């Protein structure tokens, strides 16, 4: 389903309440989980500073087996102060006692992390290259390695856009499996003359990509479609042709390996964005089969 700029704006508005309800329900389940597990944390009677909070939660995260306990506590406490990192804050603020409001917020956020919710979902945002993207479960969280993929695509597209006959041609990039929109939006931000089409089998991903595009002011050059490349191949071929580049970070894990994933991934992220089938190549093979029918000769 295609979204024009106006439709995209309206859709995001109407979806806000639905997503808010889903997120509140997710948080309630986290609170119930912690209550039933009997996990208790005692805060200092006289209050707690930001630096003390970092060390306190780092210790509790480690005791509970939470991955990267140090980074988790740093990111969450920095988020309380509206910062990306603690290092960017005035050191005096780090030694002041947290207000009751910040203490309550700290408890809620860190409790979610204790349930193994990824820190990206806890603070509801994450940086990808030079973009800050909205994050929401169960949409796939972009990994640092994907930034390398973007760099490779940028190098290729810059050659097409900047030299020869290709410089005067309108170029469009198609992304299969857009997730939060990290790849497409990064390409659009770096290449003002580029247009992009983003597809995903998940309506949650389509909605989140739309929200991120609007927040970044890139919606006018991006089409977003709710299409499953495995089930809707005919629709895809009818809608798209003459694409300059096709990019994807598809699911590639073996189905049998899914249950071995860390709780942060297995319990919270969309399995369809991870499970590549018996041989891990199910979606990859489909993309390679369709690519010659979608790409331009010089794609």
Features:
Rossmann fold; elongated; alpha/beta; two-stranded antiparallel ribbon; 299 residues
Write a concise synopsis of the structure shown.
The protein has 299 residues and is an alpha/beta fold.
Structure notes:
One of its GO terms (cellular component) is mitochondrion. Pfam families: MTS, PrmC_N. It catalyses: L-glutaminyl-[peptide chain release factor] + S-adenosyl-L-methionine = N(5)-methyl-L-glutaminyl-[peptide chain release factor] + S-adenosyl-L-homocysteine + H(+). This is peptide chain release factor N(5)-glutamine methyltransferase. The chain is α/β, with parallel strands linked by helices and about 300 residues long. The chain folds into two domains: about 40-120, Orthogonal Bundle (Helicase, Ruva Protein, domain 3), CATH 1.10.8; about 125-295, Rossmann fold. It contains twelve helices and six strands. It has helices spanning about 5-35, 50-65, 70-80, 90-95, 100-115, 120, 145-160, 180-190, 205-215, 235-240, 265, 280-295, and strands at about 125-130, 130-135, 170-175, 195-200, 220-225, 245-250. Strands 5-4-3-6 form a four-stranded parallel β-sheet, with helices on both faces. Strands 1-2 form a two-stranded antiparallel sheet. Helix 9 (about 205-215) links the parallel strand 4 (about 195-200) and strand 5. Helix 3 (about 70-80) runs antiparallel to helix 5. Mean pLDDT is about 90; it is low at about 1-5 and about 20-35.
């Amino acid at each position: 389903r295609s979204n024009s700029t106006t439709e995209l704006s309206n859709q995001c508005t109407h979806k806000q309440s639905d997503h808010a309800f889903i997120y509140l329900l997710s948080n309630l389940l986290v609170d119930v989980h912690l209550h039933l597990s009997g996990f208790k944390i005692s805060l200092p009677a006289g209050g707690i500073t930001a630096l003390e909070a970092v060390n306190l939660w780092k210790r509790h995260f480690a005791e509970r087996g939470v991955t990267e306990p140090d980074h988790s506590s740093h990111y969450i406490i920095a988020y309380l102060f509206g910062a990306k990192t603690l290092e960017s804050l005035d050191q005096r603020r780090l030694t002041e006692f947290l207000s009751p409001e910040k203490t309550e917020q700290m408890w809620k956020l860190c409790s979610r992390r204790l349930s193994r919710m990824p820190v990206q979902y806890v603070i509801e945002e994450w940086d990808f290259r030079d973009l800050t993207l909205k994050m929401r479960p169960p949409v796939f969280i972009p990994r640092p390695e994907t930034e390398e993929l973007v760099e490779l695509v940028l190098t290729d597209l810059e050659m097409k856009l900047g030299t020869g006959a290709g410089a005067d041609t309108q170029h469009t990039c198609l992304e299969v499996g857009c997730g939060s929109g990290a790849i497409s939006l990064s390409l659009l931000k770096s290449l003002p003359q580029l247009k992009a089409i983003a597809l995903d089998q998940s309506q949650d991903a389509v909605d989140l990509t739309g929200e991120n595009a609007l927040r970044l002011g890139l919606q006018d050059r991006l089409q977003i479609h709710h299409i499953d490349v495995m089930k809707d191949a005919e629709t895809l071929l009818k809608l798209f042709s003459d694409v300059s580049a096709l990019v994807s970070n598809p699911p590639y894990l073996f189905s049998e390996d899914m249950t071995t994933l860390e709780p942060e991934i297995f319990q919270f992220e969309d399995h369809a964005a991870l499970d590549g089938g018996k041989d891990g190549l199910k979606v990859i093979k489909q993309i390679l089969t369709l690519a010659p029918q979608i790409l331009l000769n010089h794609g």
